[in-house]
Structure formats: C-alpha cells, structure tokens
Inverse folding.
C-alpha cells in the first residue's frame, strides 16, 4: 500500500480516537450524522490532515529547527497543534464539519494523535519490513 494511503488511514484512526477521547472539545461530523456520514467526515478530515502533514509540516519544521532544538522539542507540540488548527480551517473551507475548541485542546489532540499514530505505525512497520540493504 502506498505510504500516503497508509498515513491517511492511520491519521483517520488517530483523529477518530482523539475526537472520541476529547469529547465535545474536538468534533468530527455533526452529532446527528449516521455512521456512514461520520466515516466520510473522518476520511475527509484525515485526507486534509495527511496532506498538510506531508507538504506543510516538513517546511515548517525545517524552518523552525533552531527553535525546536532550543526548546528540546517542546516547540513540536506547538507546531503540531497549529497544524491541527490549520486542518480545522481548511476543512471548514470545504464544508466538512471538524472543530477543535482552541489552542490547548489542539495541543492535547495532537498529543493523542501522535501517540495513536506511533502505536499503529509500529504495527504497520512490523508487517512491512524494509528490504535488506
């Protein structure tokens, strides 16, 4: 499976987990949505989130590298929260329901997303070992 599709699926699962854990502070879709509509909303939010993390995040993190080093990596929490808020802004422009209650909830959401991505990513890497070099 191409790397982008794997990242998209993992992001969808991580975003759904974060939305579930954060309750009313992070919502994907509308409360009255059917399960199918909710899955579509998660897939669309995950697509935007994955695209932002593939194209925007590397540029921002590279430009912020000195600040990341000085803060011993804590700046990554801020960057990841801002990328999550950017995802909220972009999905809103496309009419997809995704809401985060503010910066600190975005920080908490990005922590949950990172942990879930790391755990699930560990399973996918074990199933697809790199070829011998």
């Amino acid at each position: 499976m191409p790397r982008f599709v794997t990242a998209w699926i993992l992001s969808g699962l991580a975003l759904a987990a974060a939305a579930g854990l954060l309750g009313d502070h992070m919502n994907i879709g509308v409360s009255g949505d059917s399960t199918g509509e909710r899955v579509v909303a998660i897939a669309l939010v995950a697509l935007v989130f994955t695209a932002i993390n593939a194209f925007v995040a590397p540029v921002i993190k590279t430009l912020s590298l000195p600040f990341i080093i000085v803060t011993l990596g804590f700046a990554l929490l801020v960057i990841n929260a801002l990328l999550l808020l950017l995802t909220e802004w972009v999905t809103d422009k496309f009419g997809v329901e995704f809401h985060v209650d503010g910066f600190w909830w975005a920080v908490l959401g990005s922590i949950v997303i990172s942990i879930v991505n790391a755990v699930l990513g560990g399973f996918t890497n074990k199933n697809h070992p790199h070829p011998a070099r």
